[in-house]
Amino acid sequence: MEPTEVILQPYQAAIDKLKQAGQEITAQEVLDILNARDALQRLLDKTHIPTDSLKQVIDLDTILREKAEQIVTNIKIEQLQRWRDSVHPPVEAWWWYLEKILPTHKWDRLDWLWKGGTVVAWTVNLSLLVNLGTRFFGSGGVGLAGASAIILPSLIALLQASSELTTAGKQGFEKILNKLNIPLHWREEVRLGSTALMSVILFGFWFSLPQISKVYNRSGISDYKQGKLGAAEQNYLQAISLNTDNLEAHYNLANIYEDLQDLDKAQKHYQIAVKGEFPQAYNNLARLYIQKKQYSQAFVLLKRGVDVVEKTYDLPEVRYSLYKNLGWARFKQSRYQEAQKYLLVAIEIAQEPDKAQFIRNRGSAYCLSAQVLDSQKPGKGIEQWQKCCQLADTKDPNEDKWLHLGEKQLKKVGKKCEKVEDGIS
Questions:
Q1: Terminal Cα-to-Cα distance of the chain (whole angstroms)
Q2: In the chain, what are the domain boundaries?
Q3: Contact indicator for 326, 302 with CB cutoff of 8 Å
Q4: What is the rounded distance in angstroms from the CA atom of residue 321 to the CA atom of residue 328?
């Protein structure tokens, strides 16, 4: 018997057994085929074989190719990969890579579309990650909770990116798909689906930023009440970094800067809050204008604030402050009748029992009204000065100054400046 026939017989026998096996093929039968084909290839590499024998090899190879899908279905790609890891066959040994010669499945015809969708989804995911990272770490005050919140989705996304963009990652992902018995023709769809799921997670995180921003703002308020101005500032900055439209955070941050006498920064954030029609900001920004002697700008701003409050808000303390400061601005312009008109509105608001409890600086309107009346006729504001003394708060720089002025005015007529301890006249 010729050497070629001796080598061909095991391969022929293995293929015949494969043809008779039906749909059930064992690992041993597949290994017999691969081993026989390896032996035959070694002979083909060294010896010239007759044409008849060559044709027989080609026919047997054709049958093996036709049975490739059946073999892969029974043995699984993961099993084939383990065998390759042990044997290290050359790339030319196609029979060891049967999954790569399978005929194109109808679902695979759209793989170009799924691959393109995966690329687009990853572009979006990476952009979102960069944006989220910038927002969380841009203010420099993210804290442990904030860092954990952004690091977790980032790690998940980067691990998935590794499975898509690196050789080791792809192999690992393939092993997972093999263990899950995901058919080959669904692999690209699964990749797109997993990437899209990551997109959903990141977008969910993105859309939750306004709510997270509110949490930081509330933490800032708590810190501010405890006198922790530095911590409050960092929390407000983080809130704004996460949601630039958080008008309350802008307003609260401006309050801190005003307390710290950093009036330029305070004005900047009050202006942002005003653009969003945050009612309290109109009043505080106008107060800064008054202190800078920009009375006309302050008046226009206060009128706009009154329109906003009257239409959309029921905030007695804000309405009081707006009218009080309208009177203050007109007083500084020596327009006394207009000033008194606005101050009387403020006083009426402060005198309403259900609203007085919300107004902390009720003395201001009386102090200003007394000055307006005295400017028209000296001594006319005595009654208002008495109210000013009763209600003014020395913790407020302006009220402290006006209280001292009231003491002098009352002293001229032989009266004392008496303080009401509970702040209620």
A1: 125
A2: 3-103, 107-207
A3: yes
A4: 10
